[in-house]
């Protein structure tokens, strides 16, 4: 059985991605949660199980896979439903997940994931608005082009998992998206795997810094 190392559900957006993917697809795994160190780097703590000192980290027997995108690709070798089955949808989903993995610095920095808060930003900077607009365009494209409830068709796949933390950020910071994107956000927030994650997140001890 897989072991997935994660950090605080309240804060760790990278942990959420493979966790929600495994849950949504019904792939069994053991969860190992290691809390962030408060006020300092967790590198030394996480280095005990992860070569980069970062989470998530997946362990499968004597094989260790670090980094969320590599974990998704590793899982896809065994579980064909990780990516969309349709070639066009798969190409789009791969591009969109890679874009999430490499981009959106303003969104990440200004709207850090925190499942327990509801707030409004005093200012939407132009960099943040650019990230929101790009994500909105991307989601609208996927939902329209592939015609399903999920970003790349009628099945939840890894591209939905990769944008799951953005749905939580939209809720926490009151970010505005188009109607079709907002419907996806609402669907994502109601998904049983997300409900399970968030209900555990809000019960966790919170960091002071
Ligand atoms: N590119 C990595 C990013 C992993 C990452 O940055 N993880 C954060 C948690 S969300 C972490 O482990 N931070 C350690 C720390 O804050 O000390 C991935 O996709 O898995």
TrEMBL record:
Q: Name one GO biological process term.
A: L-phenylalanine catabolic process
Any one GO MF annotation of this record: maleylacetoacetate isomerase activity
State the CDD domains in the record. Answer: GST_C_3, GST_N_1
Q: Which Pfam families match?
A: GST_C_2 (PF13410), GST_N_2 (PF13409)
Name of this protein: Glutathione S-transferase
Q: Which PANTHER family match?
A: MALEYLACETOACETATE ISOMERASE
Q: Which organism is it from?
A: Xenorhabdus hominickii
- Lineage: superkingdom: Bacteria
Residue ranges of domain GST N-terminal in the record: 2-83
Q: Which InterPro entries match?
A: Glutathione-S-Trfase_C_sf, Glutathione_S-Trfase, Glutathione_S-Trfase_N, Thioredoxin-like_sf
């Amino acid at each position: 059985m897989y072991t997935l190392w994660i950090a605080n559900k309240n804060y760790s957006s990278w942990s959420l991605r493979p966790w929600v993917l495994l849950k949504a697809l019904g792939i069994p795994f053991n969860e190992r949660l290691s809390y962030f160190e408060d006020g300092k780097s967790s590198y030394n703590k996480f280095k005990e199980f992860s070569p980069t000192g970062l989470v998530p980290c997946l362990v499968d027997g004597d094989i260790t896979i670090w980094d969320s995108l590599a974990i998704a690709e590793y899982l896809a070798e065994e579980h064909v439903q990780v990516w969309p089955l349709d070639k066009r949808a798969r190409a789009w989903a791969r591009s969109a997940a890679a874009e999430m993995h490499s981009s959106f610095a303003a969104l990440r920095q200004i709207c850090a994931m925190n499942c327990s808060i509801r707030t409004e930003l005093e200012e939407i900077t132009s960099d943040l608005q650019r990230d929101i607009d790009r994500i909105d365009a991307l989601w609208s494209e996927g939902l329209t082009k592939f015609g399903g409830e999920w970003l790349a068709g009628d099945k939840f796949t890894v591209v939905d998992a990769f944008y799951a933390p953005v749905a939580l950020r939209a809720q926490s910071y009151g970010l505005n998206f188009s109607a079709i994107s907002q419907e996806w956000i609402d669907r994502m927030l109601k998904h049983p795997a997300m409900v399970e994650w968030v209900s555990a997140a809000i019960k966790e001890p919170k960091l002071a810094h």
